[in-house]
Amino acid sequence: MAKKPIGTPMRRTDALTKASGAEKYLSDMHFDGMLYARMVRSGIPRGTITDISLPPLPDGYRFITYKDIPAGGNNELVMIKKDYRCFAEKDVRYVGETIGLLVGPDRSVLVDLLEQISVSYEEQVPAVTIDEGLACKGGAFVGENNLFCDFTIHKGDIDAVLADAHRIFEDEIITGWQEHVHLETNAALVMPDGDKFVVYASAQCPFYVRKSIAGLLNRPYEDIVVRQTTTGGAFGGKEHFPDVLAGPLLVAANVIKKPIQLVFDRHEDGAYSVKRHPSRTRFKTALDEQGNILGMDIDVVYNAGGYESCSYVVLQRGVFHATGVYNIPASRVRGRAVATNTFPSDAFRGFGAPQTLFAVETHLCHIAAALGVDPLALKSKYFLRQGDPTVTNGHVFEKVVIPEMLDQVLQASGYKQKVAEYKRGSGKGIGISFYNHGGAFTGNGEQMIIKAKARLHKRADGFVEILVGSTEMGQGLQTAFTKIVADTLGIDEDKVLYPNPDTANVADSGPTVASRSTMIVGKILEGAALKMKERWNESEDFFTEDEYKHPEGHPWDQVTFQGDAYIAYGWGVCAVEVEVDPLTFEVVTKGIWSSHDIGVPIDELVVHGQINGGIIQSLGYAAMEKLDFHPKKGFKQVGLSDYIIPTSMDFPSQGASLVHNPYPYGPSGAKGMGELVFNGASAAFIDAVSRAVDKDIRAIPIPPETLTELMA
Amino acid sequence: MVETCYIPKDLAEALRIRKETGAHPIAGGTDLMVSHRRGTGVVPKFPWPVMIITQLKELQKIEEEDGEVSIYAGSTCHEIEVAELVPYQVRKAASLMGAQSLRNLATIGGNICNASPKGDLPVPLIMLDARVELVSATGKRQMLLDEFIDGPKRTKLQDDELLARIIIPQPKAPFTYLWYRKIGTRRANAISKLSMSAAATVDTHGIIVDFRSANGASGPKVARSRAVEETIIGLSVDRLAERLPAFLDAYDVILSPQAMPQYRRSSTRRMLEFFLSEVSKRPDTTIIE
Predict the structure, then answer these.
(1) Pairwise CA distance, residues A511 & A517, whole Å
(2) How many CB pairs under 8 A join A and B?
(3) Does the pLDDT of residue A159 top 50, yes or no?
(4) Which pLDDT value is given to residue B259?
(5) How much is the pTM?
(6) Chain A: nearest CA to B39, how far in angstroms?
């Protein structure tokens, strides 16, 4: 019998337990003597704590603060920077900063006590917006200028290009906060276990949690055993943020010596968790007399909030994607992450790329409108091709299949015919966008920082266990890894097991982030499976292990940011058609068509789910997910009736296709895709709306009331 | 924690408890349980005694008598949505509230007594001149729903009373044209940003013999003005176009200054203009969309 292609869909390994409700999540866990916790948080955006007044605590209830960190421990959560404090001490930087943890046996009593705790402050003037942060409103609170980072990359001589330009087209594009809205809220549980501690967490990166919190107790990493619990969605919101729950819990468990569970309520999760970075991107684009683009001078600022966390890395990805899928002859991109008195911004599907990709796509549409040409005609002059130089003076190594993808989308959408039919301002419009996503860690991060390993266990009973730190969070990774291992070994998928990782007995395959898992860890698993295959007939149980091998010939300088920022990219084309209601300015999306190059799909159904979800999430980002900020109280839309994510009624079913373009260093030719599919639909939607109403749109999201103001 | 919770077995017992304790009625709980929630794993806590009235059969019917439709207070949005007796706009409004699971629980009594400025059902009901019947252990009284809702979160319900039913009178002549539009935050499971319910009756000579319009989510309570409506009643549809600007200006004045952003005013204006211009064409269809 001919072997099925690996992409042929199989039933997801987690389908039955999740669909039937049998699956257990962290909030379903219970241990004897387990206590519950509630966070006591800053109620003001900026100031100094002058007093914390507690009600009398009944027996068995404790209030844990930084003072409970033992001698030798540091009050810091180690993310990429170490600036994120576990507990605020004197000053507070944002509404929602952790001050203490109230712990006890009865959740109702905890809520009563929480209502009676009052914290007094000496308040200071907060800086909330990007402009206020840059202007150091209320005085700088990070360095001298409120900047966590500030760097610039150059390609060619942009000053000379600007000086000689026939015309300089200036533009400014704004994007807002976005909340992850993972179905399962943030949750963690810490319990003492002999000399060690066991941390259960709804988390993407068990090894990150261990590394982040061990220093609170001045312990080696191995003393903190992290077990991922089945995770009901993450989207980047559980990359570093589980540390913010696990840290205080660890300090408390060390004092109280009992298991302690902390589960956020939905409103709490909305109000007091990390968000996508708001952005402001300014362009000065040099054009010649014929309207050709000669160069772009780009200034990118991300609102990082109160702590740096991973903002420097998010910003790098934003900067390295700032000229999109285009070969712009000369460019300068400056990136700054500004500190403000808002909840820290952090990882979110796309990790900084969606903001700048939206900006460059929208900017090109504005140029096209000004020149009176179709945006597609303008954009298609500059598509990157194999061998072309990138914005960091590296090269595109793979064949770029944008023309093939574009053909598919044009055919499916009827783009050209609709452009001819729907005049600008007619209330109907179709838009198109192009995007990519650099796979895995930026530059040589996989080689120098992560150094991923993967382990397989051939058990005596004939089952093969996958032992890696990579996590299933709903994206389908268990299914993908199971297929890769089964396919390599030539065994049935149901002979492969992939339990939730436990840091005590799995290999550190790196964090489940950056669209790296299938492409990088999947390949390492393939290597471990090949080794296992050679020893398949051994009678005893045994383990095989493999590690990451960096493809040769990809120079990268992490100081100057020059060279190959990414070894391989996923690519995407998306068209969106809309109709604007002339009475209410509600936007009805009539059609969505996309094509993606993700190498080769490991499971077509999982890929289909990712495309559908990523595109809807991206459309929500542009259309309706408005998240305002009250300077004194924090985020305004914190519940699901106020923070509006799309329902299945809001967008029609999608036409989605793929162009196979096997990647030689990925398992069965696969590349990353989880973030790629978020990166472009927002720009296509705004392009469509912009054409329908014949107005340039410079900020998202754009609910009907904002569109009305634009039309006034 | 619920301090005191009564579960009466019939309406008479409920009215007695209400009189003796002032316990607040709770039916579907889709507003009260949410607004008094205290977090995961913790029971909501109410600052007053509560009385569950979901089980009261006397409050669960929709019936017609002498041309008037009575929707009893315990009727759920879903029951209203599928009830053929109920006028179009009320059914439509009920069908667009929340998600199916909410519509299976939420009651018309709750939607009215909660008196949220964003409540959906009062808008078409007030347009239809609906009355409420309030009952107590000692008697009953009726008043216009528009009077019953006093302001945001405020009603004229006395401490010993329960809302028994909503009575929708029949218009003198059947409406010729109907309009309902809800602008929500999204296409399903959404809270109203604005809703508008309107109806017109045009006789065989093209004279507008009745016209009504009410707006929700555009002020502290539902906006409606009979005086403004009357400025176009008695007109021939042929003269509607010339009278329209003055009418729209007058209508704009009844919207609360709190109907900001400007969006609510301008959308209302465009919807009314559209509805009336359609009416002036005297189309064959009753429902204008």
Answers:
(1) 8
(2) 76
(3) yes
(4) 62
(5) 0.97
(6) 6
Q: Which CATH architecture has domain B177-280?
A: 2-Layer Sandwich (3.30)
Q: Give the model confidence (pLDDT) of B45-80 as tens digits.
A: 999 999 999 999 999 999 999 999 999 999 999 999
Pairing of strands B192-202, B208-216: antiparallel
Share of chain A above pLDDT 70, in %: 100
Give me the residues paired with residue A330 across strands: A295
Residue A213 backbone dihedrals phi, psi, to 5 degrees? -105, -15
Chain A residues whose beta carbon lies within 8 Å of the beta carbon of residue B267: 583-585, 704, 708
**Residue A4 — very low, low, confident or very high, per pLDDT cuts 50/70/90?**
confident
* A428 beta partners: A579
Q: Is the predicted pLDDT of residue B1 greater than 50, yes or no?
A: no
Mean pLDDT over residues A468-493, rounded?
A: 98
User: For residue A630, what are the CA distances in angstroms to A45, A129, A545, A642?
Assistant: 10, 11, 51, 14
Select the CATH number that applies to the domain covering B5-168 from these four: 3.30.70.370, 3.40.50.150, 3.50.50.60, 3.30.465.10.
3.30.465.10
Task: Give me the mean pLDDT over the A422-432 stretch.
Answer: 97
Show me where the domains of chain A are located. 15-22+445-547, 31-124+186-263, 279-442+560-711
- Whether residue B75 contacts residue B58, with contact meaning beta carbons closer than 8 Å, is answered with no
Q: Yes or no: say if A638 and A267 are a contact pair by the CB < 8 Å rule.
A: yes
Judge whether B262 is closer than 8 Å to chain A, CB to CB.
yes
Q: Which of A624, A644, A705 sits opposite B263 (nearest CB)?
A: A705
Two tokens, residue B287: 């429902």
Residues A308-353 pLDDT 10s? 999 999 999 999 999 999 999 999 999 999 999 999 999 999 999 9
Between β-strands B50-52 and B5-6, what pairing exists: parallel, antiparallel or unpaired? Answer: parallel
Nearest-CA distance from A649 to chain B in Å?
A: 6
Q: What is the pLDDT of residues A629-685, one digit of tens each?
A: 999 999 999 999 999 999 999 999 999 999 999 999 999 999 999 999 999 999 999
DSSP state of A84: B
Of A108, A268, A649, the CB nearest to B42: A108
Task: Give the mean pLDDT of B221-250.
Answer: 96
Q: Are A708 and B41 an interchain contact pair (Cβ–Cβ within 8 Å)? A: no
Distance from CA of B120 to the nearest CA of A (A): 15
Over residues B98-121, the mean pLDDT reads: 96
A279-442+560-711 and A15-22+445-547 share a CATH fold: yes
Q: Do A649 and B186 touch (CB under 8 A)?
A: yes
A584 to chain B nearest CA, in Å? 5
- CB count in 10 Å sphere of residue A412: 18
Residue B20: count of CB within 10 angstroms of its CB: 11
Confidence grade of residue B262 (pLDDT, cut at 50, 70, 90)? confident
Contact with chain B for residue A329, Cβ under 8 A:
no
Digit-coded pLDDT (tens) for B116-148: 999 999 999 999 999 999 999 999 999 999 999
Ranges of each domain in chain B: 5-168, 177-280
Q: Does domain A15-22+445-547 have CATH number 3.30.365.10?
A: yes
User: For A6-11, which contacts have Cβ atoms below 8 Å and span 24 or more sequence positions?
Assistant: A6/A483, A6/A484, A6/A487, A6/A600, A6/A602, A6/A603, A6/A668, A7/A600, A7/A601, A7/A602, A7/A603, A7/A604, A7/A607, A8/A603, A8/A604, A9/A603, A9/A604, A9/A605, A9/A606, A10/A479, A10/A483, A10/A493, A10/A603, A10/A605
Q: What is the CATH number of domain A31-124+186-263?
A: 3.90.1170.50
Contact B39 A649 (CB under 8 A): no
Chain B within 8 Å of A643 (Cβ-Cβ)? no
| Nearest CB partner across the interface for B186, out of A108, A583, A624 | A624
Class for the domain spanning A279-442+560-711: alpha beta
- Closest residue in A to B271 (Cα–Cα): A583
